[in-house]
Write a structure and sequence with these properties.
144 residues; mainly alpha
């Protein structure tokens, strides 16, 4: 598989997910569809931008010998699936908090000190609480 194939596949998946998200907003309330509509548009624009950048920029010779990130991608997909499955039993805040910790462990490439870990956990917790507040209070979306 060439160095351009993976980004093109990712861009097609992004566009498809965006189109699917937009297609599912019809039965939602006006405020309820704000988030999925925004996420869908971002996924479509991101997919198109990734495809354009992949086609237009030259392939650096070093990228031909880079190690594969397939295990990280699979692990990330597993965490996202786990988040979706745990959303009802654990609730939004708990499942999102666990997912952020899991994603941070997957994304990490170098060891971190305790101070860095504490900062990352605090930022992650703040983001989860901010999204919970925005969804439940501003957009009036009921969260599990």
């Amino acid at each position: 598989m060439g160095p351009r194939v993976k980004p093109i596949i990712a861009s097609v998946i992004g566009v498809a997910v965006g189109i699917f998200a937009l297609s599912q907003t019809a039965p939602m309330s006006e405020l309820g569809r704000v988030f999925p509509t925004t996420a869908g548009i971002i996924a479509i624009v991101g997919g198109v931008a990734l495809a354009a950048l992949t086609v237009l920029r030259p392939v650096p010779a070093a990228s031909l010998s880079e190690p594969s990130d397939v295990p990280r991608v699979i692990a990330t997909c597993a965490v996202l699936l786990g988040w979706a499955l745990l959303l009802d039993p654990l609730g939004f805040i708990a499942s999102s908090g666990l997912s952020i910790v899991a994603l941070a462990l997957i994304a990490r490439r170098e060891p971190m000190g305790l101070k860095s870990i504490a900062i990352h956990l605090a930022v992650g917790a703040g983001l989860v609480l901010l999204f919970a507040f925005l969804l439940s209070q501003v957009l009036n979306v009921s969260l599990p």
